Amino acid sequence: MAGEAGGAGGSERPSLRYGHAGFAKRGEDYFLVKPDCLRVPGDTSTAFSVFAVFDGHNGVSAAVYSKEHLLEHVMSALPPDIGRDDWLQALPRALVAGFVKADIDFQRKGEVSGTTATLVVVDGFTVTVASVGDSRCILDTQGGEVQLLTVDHRLEENAEERERVTASGGEVGRLNLFGGQEVGPLRCWPGGLCLSRSIGDMDVGEFIVPIPHVKQVKLSNIGGRLIIASDGIWDALPSEAAAKACRGLPAELAAKLVVKQALKKSGLKDDTTCVVVDIIPSDYRLTSPQLSPKRNQSKFKSLLFGRRSHSSIGKLGGKSASFGSVEELFEEGSAMLEERLGRNLSLKATSAPLRCAICQVDQEPFESMMTEKGGSYCSSPCAPWGGPYLCLECRKKKDAMEGKRSSHSTACR
Predict the structure, then answer these.
(1) Exposed, middle or buried, 177 (CB in 10 Å: 0-12/13-18/19+)?
(2) Residues 336, 337, 341, 347: is their CA dihedral positive or negative?
(3) Distance from C-alpha of 145 to C-alpha of 240, rounded to nearest angstrom
(4) pLDDT tens per residue, range 59-74
(5) Which of 71, 130, 222, 298 is deepest in the core (most CB within 10 A)?
(6) Predicted pLDDT at 315
(7) Rounded-to-integer distance, Cα 40 and Cα 301, Å
(8) Beta-ladder partners of 54
(9) Are 354 and 400 in contact (CB under 8 A)?
């Protein structure tokens, strides 16, 4: 599968070339490609694109649900009628709300499957990535610098996540065989999941949270390449090796080569899914009439994926002061909703309905206060909440994720 999304809103916006490849062993990997999204219906100047990889486990239901509904939950959490800059600034918070909403809705189905989720939003040269689990997105810049835009939520490698899970009521340990021998990677018990964050997994415990790590960067006007893939790729290939293996190839062939290299190194031990997205300045589109396809492709290779030029590599976090540099706009990985949704929205008893920051359901202030302060909900174990309004169900979800109350306890009588 290959495709192209043309630039919109003027020549300063890049074009996208993208391709996908994969092999199935269990058939639990899914991907999403939506290159033609619009912030404002009918207005092509508000175009953005979305790419995602979902690696399911214990069945495919969670991965399928996330592919079909995660994006709409994120979009519903974004304020309407705002400009592009405000939209991009609101996007990290909306991604958190959308991931949590997807988890709540899927768990209502009563199914026990779970999934990783790596969702990438490309708007012009701005890239925003939200991820739970161990699927990964990397950025290969013009200078040959490879940057990891996600954090792996594996208990084996992530000490901070191990501490959070145990503090919230879970246990972390290896599989214990007869005779007391411990084998395999660190897992969370109950359930035996190797990940500390996912969507679904209702049989494991609410301390396995759907709150994503979010990173937003702005590429320089030279563009770059994104490689989004499931752990079937990353268990076989380091990030640098995957990026280097496919430099100089168009996106579709690059995705196929990354998969081929992973299979060559480790065999088909797991599902392997790879999506490659090239963010191409409009001046260097391969279809440009000024250059023949061969000459233009060669120029494109040298600009984006040629030999390393250390003098042109910019430092992440600073302003784009050099050719090929990347500016970090936002990064947050906390698993605490109060930190992720913010404290700037107060609960005021007005006649207007309050809207839950996660599920986007309106509730009358009087009703919400009676529900939380009356006899139908025991709020005494809950820490004071300084963030935006959460409805009863989302508040209970928040408390359960933090180990403050059982996710199955809904009333105090």
Answers:
(1) exposed
(2) negative
(3) 8
(4) 999 999 999 999 999 9
(5) 130
(6) 32
(7) 34
(8) 30
(9) no
Tens digits of residue pLDDT in 280-308: 998 764 433 323 334 444 444 444 444 33
Q: Are 173 and 206 in contact (CB under 8 A)?
A: no
Are 391 and 382 a contacting pair, CB within 8 Å? no
Q: What angle do CA 371, 375, 380 make, to 5 degrees?
A: 85
> DSSP 3-state assignment of 225?
strand
Q: Is 337 helix (H, G, I), strand (E, B) or coil?
A: helix
CA–CA distance, 283 with 77 (Å, rounded to integer): 35
Confidence bin at 354 (pLDDT 50/70/90)? confident
Cα dihedral 148→135→244→320 (10° resolution): -30
Assess whether pLDDT exceeds 80 at residue 406.
Answer: no
Residue whose pair of structure tokens reads 């797991």 in the numeric block: 270
Best CA proximity match to 44, nearest among 75, 15, 80, 7: 7
Q: How far, in Å, CA of 209 to CA of 199, rounded?
A: 7
Backbone angles phi, psi at 106, to 5 degrees: -70, -40
Question: What is the dotted CATH code of the domain comprising 15-176+184-280?
Answer: 3.60.40.10
Query: Which SS3 state, helix, strand or coil, does residue 93 take?
Result: helix
Q: What is the 3-state secondary structure (H, E, C) of 14-68?
A: CEEEEEEEEECCCCCEEEEEEEEEECCCCCHHHEEEEEEEEEEECCCHHHHHHHH
pLDDT tens track for 196-227: 999 999 999 899 999 999 999 999 988 999 99
What is the DSSP secondary-structure string of 231-295? HHHHTTS-HHHHHHHTTTS-HHHHHHHHHHHHHHHH-SSS-EEEEEEEEE-GGG-TT-TTS-HHH
CA-closest candidate to residue 398, choices 66, 103, 159: 103
* Two tokens, residue 292: 């023949």
- What is the b/e burial string over 63-92, where b = at least 16 CB atoms within 10 angstroms of the residue's CB? bbbbbeebbebbeebbeeeeebeebbeebb
User: In this structure, are residues 191 and 206 in contact, taking their beta carbons and an 8 Å threshold?
Assistant: no
Between the ranges 75-89, 280-294, 359-373, where is the mean pLDDT highest?
75-89
Instruction: Give the single-character DSSP code of 154.
Output: B
